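Appendix B. Chain record.
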Amino acid sequence: MTNSIVSKAAIALMASTAFTLAARAEGPISWWYETATPEQQGITTRNIIEPFNASHHGDTLSIDYRGAQLDNQMRVALLSGSGPDIVYTAGPSYVAPMAQAGQLLALDQYAEQFGWNDRILPVFIEMGKYNGQLYALPKTYETLGLFYNATLFEKHGWKVPTTIAELETVADAMLAKNIVPFSAGNALWRPTNEHYVTIVFNSIAGPEAVYRALKGEIPWTSEPFVKAIDKLDEWWGKGYFGPNYFSLNGEQQVAQLANGQAGMMPSGTPVHRFPLDEPAASGE
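C-alpha cells predicted for this chain:
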C-alpha cells in the first residue's frame, strides 16, 4: 500500500502462505513471522521494513521472528484478543476459522482501492476468501516437486525418474549403495508430513480423484487414496525417508542432498531459501 494504512485491522498473509490484518490504529505495526536466517532478516529489513517506514510517516513496521512456534503462539494470541497486526499463516486453510471468529479484517474495499484483484492471480484471491469476503493475501506462490543431486545421478548412471516405477527403481538403487533416497525431515515444521501426503495423492491417486474429493463427490477414504497412503507407508518401511526424519530441518535436508548423502528430495519450492554450498542439486 502506498501512503496509506488499513486502520483497525489484522491482515492475513497466506504462504501458499497466507497473510492477514488484525485490528489496529495508526502507529506501530507488528508482524509475526516464521524462521529466517540473519541474512534473510537483513534482506527483509532493507526491502520491506525500511522502505515502508520511510514512506509512511507516523507508522512504524516491525517484524518479530517467532520461529517454529509461530503457529501455536498465533492461535493463543488471537484467542486472547491480542496478537500482531499482520497475521501470517501456513496456508489458506487457516483463514476460515480466524475469519469465522471475527479475528480478521475483510479486505475487499482495499483490494478494490489498491488494484489487488488485477495484480494477483484470481485463484489466489479466491483462496483468501471466506463466505464471499476477502480476508487473506498470498505472501508466496508455492508448489511441490522432486529435487535431485545431478552430480550423483551422473556418477551412477541413474535416469531422472518421470514415473512412480522409475522413482522406486532409482530409490532402491540408492539404498543398495547406502544413499538415502529422500532427503526429508520435519524437525522445524511438523506439518511437513502433509507435503508427502499431497505428493502421493496427486501422483498416485491422481489429480482427478483429488478434485472429486474436494467437491465432495467421493470420500477421502476411497480406494485411490487408500492406495496412495499404502504406497507412502511402503516407502517409509523400505527406508526411503532415511533414519533421521524426525530430527532434520529444512537447511539440513538441503545440505544432505547437496553433499550426496541423499539422492533426491521431494519438497516444496520454499527450500530455495536455504543456500547450497555445492552446485550439485537440481530441481525437476
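Further analysis of this model is presented in Appendix C.
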